[in-house]
Structure formats: C-alpha cells, structure tokens
Amino acid sequence: MDQNIKKQIESIITRIDQLPPLPEVASKVINMVNNPDVSFKQVALEIPKNQAMTANILKLCNSAFFSKGKEITSIDRAIVTLGLKEVKDIVLLVAAKPVLDKAVIGYDLGQGDLWKQGLSVATMSRDIALGKKRKDIADVVFTGGIIHNVGKVVIALFVQQAFMNILDLVQSSGITFHEAEKSVLGFNHQEVGEKILEKWNFPPVLRSIVRFYQDPELAPAEHQFEVSIVHVANAICLMGGVGIGNDGLYHEMKDQAVKKVGLTQNELETLFGRTPDILKQIRDLQ
Amino acid sequence: MSDIISVGVAQIRYSSSPSVLRTILGSCVGICIYDRVKKIGGMAHVLLPVSQKTQVNPEKYADTAIPLLVRELLKEGAKKENMSAKITGGASMFKFGSNIALGQIGDRNIEQTKLELQKLGIPIVVEEVGGNLGRVIDFYLTDGHMKVKAGGQEKMYYKV
Questions:
Q1: pLDDT over 80 (residue B137)
Q2: How much is the pTM?
Q3: Which of B22, B93, B108 to mutate to test the interface with A (most CBs of A within 10 A)?
Q4: Which chain A residue has its CA at the smallest distance from B95's CA?
Q5: B32 is catalytic
Q6: Could you confirm whether domain B4-155 is CATH 3.30.300.110?
Q7: Domain count within chain A
Q8: CATH number of the structural domain spanning residue A107
Q9: Which is nearest to B139 in space by CA: B151, B156, B123, B125?
Q10: Which of B12, B20, B25, B28 is catalytic?
C-alpha cells in the first residue's frame, strides 16, 4: 500500500470541507420525505427557497421521463401531480448533477459518462423494484442508483496515479477492482462515497447502497434488498458498456444478490436486453 | 478532422471513406465489415446472440443484425468477395455467481457472431474478443483499420 496516498485520502475524507458539497435543500427534502410527521406543504415551501434549482426542477418535472402529460408550473402542482417521492428524486437529480456530471479521469471516464451510468443504474433499479412489486422502494433505489458511484469523483485522482498497480494486482491476485483499490490506496470508492453521504446527511439506506453496492451481503439486513437491486443493475449496465471505464468488468455479479431480489435467468437477460431502451429513456435527463 | 459517427448499443451504422465509426463495448460484440475496393464499411453493435420472435429490433441480435448490415452494404455497392470482418468486444464479468447464466453472454455473443459471418462467407481477419476489459472502438473507413482502446492502452489493427 502506498502510505503517502493513504494519508492524502484520509485527510480529504476526514475534512468535511474537502468533500463535494450538495445544496442544502436536497438533504432537507430527502429527510423530510422520510419523516412521516412532515406534510407535503412543508416540502412545497422548502424547495422554492432555492430559486436557481426550482427552475431546473420544474423543467425536469415536464421532461418526457417524469411528465404525466399536464404541464407543471409550480412545486405545489409538481407534488400533487407526480407525488412527493418523485419530486424528491427530481430535486436530487438537479442537486447531484454538478457533482457527478464531470470527467473522472482516473477511471478514464469522459465528461458525462459517470452521470449517464448513474442514471442508467437508477432507471434499471427502479424497473427492477417495480417488477418485483416493490413500488415502496422504487424511489430509494432510483436515488441510490444515481449516487452509487459518487466516491469515484474524489478518489479518481489517486486511482490515476496508482492505476497500473491496481490493475496488476487485479490480474495477479484474481481480486476485483474495488478490492485492489482498497489494497493499493487504503480506501476504495465505496468507503469514500459513504463519507460524502455522511456529509450530505443522507439517510442510512442510501449510505448502505453507496457503501455496499459491490458487496450487498455485507449490508445491514434491513437494507439488503435495496442494495442487491443496485448491485444487479450496476453489473448489467456495465456489461452493456454504459459508463464502462478502465476498470472494465473487473467486478462481480453475485448469486446471493440475484437470489435476494428474486430474479430468474430469463429476467436477468431481459433486463440486459433492455439497455438500449433505458439509454433512450434517460436522454432528456442528461 | 474526419467525421466520427457514434454507434449506439443495438445499432447498425455504415458509411464511406473518410468517416470513422465509434462505439463502446462491454459484453456486447462489435462487428466491423469493410469493402476494401469500394472503401465503404459498417459496424453492428449487438447486445444478444439470438432474436426472439416477439422482439422487434433486428439491430440488437447477432443473428439478425449481421445479415442486415451485409445487405445494407451490398445495397451501397459493396461486393461480398471484397468484404472482411473484424470482431471485438464480448468481455465477461470478472466474477459471477455459478447460477448466473448472463455471465456467459459475452462468449455467446462471440460464438453467434462467428457463426453468422461463416454462414455469409465473410472472413474474419481480426478477433480482439473476450477478457474483462471494456473497449472503445474506432473503425476508420479510409482504409478499414481499427483502433481498440482497453484498460488505458491502444492497439491498432490494419488487416483488411
């Protein structure tokens, strides 16, 4: 392990101001939606405080991806027409885009690639949840899908310095890329991602998704279903070449996760076959 | 700068010199077919090996996309005897559960691609397939050479 790199990463993740920021309204809304004591009126009052975001939120409410036909011209209308959870997802999309929509050089991802991968994983995760009659968690896995990779934006610089060492270790020891990341850098992008979500004050289930999406069996039992969905969706999107970086397919798709979600072989292949449709769907979110 | 045409998942694109056809592959297979006399060529980016009757997009499957691409190239004036193919992609997930058949989809795509090209009598001059890396492919229609970028390294294939 490179001690120098480990120290640098440590100093970044222990100093909150070094991690990417998120507009306050996003964390507020995410936690409000999870709190049964909060009324939709309170959320409707909170969002417009950030005027710059509100314009973009309304634009997305009227995109082909989210629109229900009727034009939406206010946050009040958005919540009534689309529902609170859907509006929360849209707030997060608008807030997270500036963090995720950039080139991630260490992973050889061009501008927009990481964002596109997050959107694809989010959309596929939502489809899986709905297919398994779990509408109640569709919004959670959608949000988790968008941000599952967020740690990469911070750790990329170090991955770039140590890329050949990481890849050599993968190929000589037969371990996955994120295991080699941990071994060479002292941290992997999931751990860094978890720190970012702590800073953003995100709820536990989302932290679990970011921390364990490569190892869903290690997630707390109450989050394993959600984490497993994002695990499967991420693997399938990468196989489809969506947002595939220089770490390629040096990852794992696990039996336990597939079993946990209850996906058959046919369903897996159907999901993979849906990749082009998902790419079409997310076009107006890019 | 030559004109770069992006080939999406489950798409066929064809053009002539000096265009460049570009795609990104994981477990999908990219099939680059070139007529060295006419200097026209095309690429198919297939996701799955064999089409189901209920499916509608023929560009998605090796068994329908490859014959379709060849038909389109013939319409453009290419001749079968001047055509050759380079195939690439078909990577696999590094590790996958023993119950996950989708883990072999890359290999199945490669196998079906070879079968289709053999049926059509088009020789495969370059095979850069399998493994666990993603690939960015640039297929240059000036002379039919192909650039493959994988794991931060570039390789060139000139045979046509």
A1: yes
A2: 0.96
A3: B93
A4: A252
A5: no
A6: no
A7: 1
A8: 1.10.3210.10
A9: B156
A10: B28
